Amino acid sequence: MGGHFDIEEKTTKISEIEKIMNEPNFWDDIDKANNLNKELTLLKKETSTYNNLTKETLSNNEILELLEIEFSDELANELDKDINTLYTKIEELEIATLLNGEYASSDCYLEIHPGAGGTESCDWASMLQRMYQRFCDKMNYKYEIIEQQAGEEAGIKSVTLHIKGDYAYGYLKCESGVHRLVRISPFDSNKRRHTSFASVSVVPEIDQNINIEIKDEDIRIDVYCASGHGGQGVNTTPSAVRITHYPSKIVVTCQNERSQLQNKEQAMKVLKGKLYRLEAERKEKELAMLKGISTGIDFGSQIRSYVLEPYTLVKDTRSNFEMGDAAKVLDGEIKPFIESILKMK
User: Fold this and answer.
1) What is the DSSP-derived secondary structure letter of residue 293?
2) Which of 269, 298, 320, 322 could form a disulfide with 315 if both were Cys (CB 3.0 to 4.6 A apart)?
3) How far, in Å, CA of 275 to CA of 218, rounded?
4) Which is nearest to 260 in space by CA: 221, 298, 311, 299?
5) pLDDT digits (tens, 9 = 90+) for 12-43
């Protein structure tokens, strides 16, 4: 396995969380309680899977010993099927061991912005939005649009999705970077081939108890009337919130909630996540410099190419993993690409 599964460590962690949950004041802090409950559920799922795989492996070994004594075609075929199934389950557990970074099990915010190119790039950004929404459907993740701006002719100028599910950030953080599309433009009457770019940014939803310092004098909060989703009440009252963080030049907007207070809380969560990621990338660059290696973690780095003309191919520039069925990938089949990155790291 690429990762390391320490069953004793995880079992000890389960006992520690269960002890905390039995304390009388456990539910006083709802957010903290929910986060611990989520962590416990994931740990129990992983340890149960590990124990079941161990039992299946021992059972298959016993069958193998029987076959060495007296061979049976029927039993051998059954064992072959069981081993193939077992191999698939072990691969899934391997991925779980690789999703072990800070905030890997957290929910996340995914933003998409078109690059230069006007309508072409705006349309490409909306195609990426659909791809990630279809991926969420396949993973049984819940998502909501907390901010979206439509393009002038087609597509979108920006969108932010709040994605909730097991290891949402752990999986989707691999998607941060620039995505490149090559196709015959549907907006070009001469049917010429165009190249479009869009950037994807993924940040974790930070636990409100984590201390990420944001000084009042470092931010400006603007309110305005929202547009798009949310109904008439949202569109006619100044409920949308825009927060500008001066030191980092980060700008966050939220317009999904009906109240200004809710939008402000949501926007602050996104800002915290972005500041966390900024600091994590800074530390990673410093470590890479000390080691004398270059990294591809820059926000502007191109991570994947989607070619629809003159042939179809999607290729990740980091792991070199590729798939010929581009339509399938754009329909949300991106898990193999994500797993190729996790295994590479």
Assistant:
1) -
2) 322
3) 13
4) 221
5) 988 998 898 999 888 888 878 887 888 888 88
Span 232-259, average pLDDT? 80
DSSP output for 97-157:
HH--STTTTS-EEEEEEE-SSTHHHHHHHHHHHHHHHHHHHHHT-EEEEEEEEE-SSSSEE
Q: What is the pLDDT of residues 99-158, one digit of tens each?
A: 877 788 889 999 999 987 788 999 999 999 999 999 999 999 999 999 898 888 889 999
Closest CA to 272 of 330, 328, 219: 219
For residue 45, the tally of other CB atoms under 10 A from its CB is 12
Which structure tokens are listed for 136?
């969420």
Q: What is the dihedral of CA 165, 271, 120, 295, to 10 degrees?
A: -80
Q: Which of 82, 18, 16, 5 is nearest to 47 (CA)?
A: 5
- Tens of pLDDT, residue by residue over 151-202, are 888 899 999 999 999 899 999 999 999 999 999 988 777 778 889 999 999 9
Q: Reply yes or no: is the peptide bond before residue 310 cis, omega within 30 of 0.
A: yes
CA distances from 112 to 211, 266, 297 (A): 27, 17, 17
Tokens representing 66 are: 């029987």
Rounded to 5°, the CA angle 147-199-337 comes to: 110
* Residue carrying the six token digits 């193939």: 84
Question: Are the CB atoms for 56 and 83 separated by under 8 Å?
Answer: no
Task: Give residue for tokens 């969560």.
Answer: 269
Taking the C-alpha atoms of residue 339 and residue 333, their distance in angstroms, rounded to an integer, is 12
- Please name which of 340, 339, 326, 296 lies closest in space to residue 181, comparing C-alpha atoms: 326
**Can you tell me the distance from the alpha carbon of 267 to that of 166, in angstroms, rounded to the nearest whole number?**
22
Instruction: Say if residues 103 and 204 touch (Cβ distance below 8 Å).
Output: yes
Contacts with 8 (C-beta within 8 Å, 6 or more apart), sequence order: none
Burial of 1-17, coded b for 16+ CB within 10 Å and e otherwise, reads eeeebeeeeeeeebeeb
Contact predicate 171/96, CB 8 Å: no
